[in-house]
Sequence to fold (181 residues):
Amino acid sequence: MKTILLSIFGVIVAYVAYVVFYTGVLKVVKIEKVESGPEFHLVYKVHTGAYHEIDRTITQVEDWLAAQNIGCATSFGHYLDDAESVAEERLQSHGGCVLSQAFTSPNDQFNDQFLYKKIEPQPYVKATFLGSPAFGPLKVYPKVLAYVESNGLKRNPTILEVYVGTEGGGMETTYYFPLSK
Fold:
């Protein structure tokens, strides 16, 4: 009996350690104000509904781009509504891929399902987190919102999350919180 209990306890401890490591609970969030963030060239699909379900939309864009022989090393979620004030089923977002450069004639290659947009450089509060994108909003958003408030900044409600895979299968997410002028 003692062996069984120790085995169960060992499995629970290993599972908790794995979850803590995978989610990034103990990882640091780097936050900085950026006067002029990068220019973004985005291929995306519109997603309506819960933000945590955007991964299927991103995968559809990645697959479509692969069929067009266009690589997608960096993906994104652009969250357009405030999740605390809009009903989950009505939340609007864009999910897809960040391209390294603009298309010369983007409308020739896109249709009403796969779209292209460019986001001009602008001021942001930028946060970087080396953990699970699913856990990021729980850890990153409160820290950024506290940073915005303590520095007397004003932001608009959209958030751009940029996802890059790391060596070893991890994920680095960079969060761009646009600042109002």
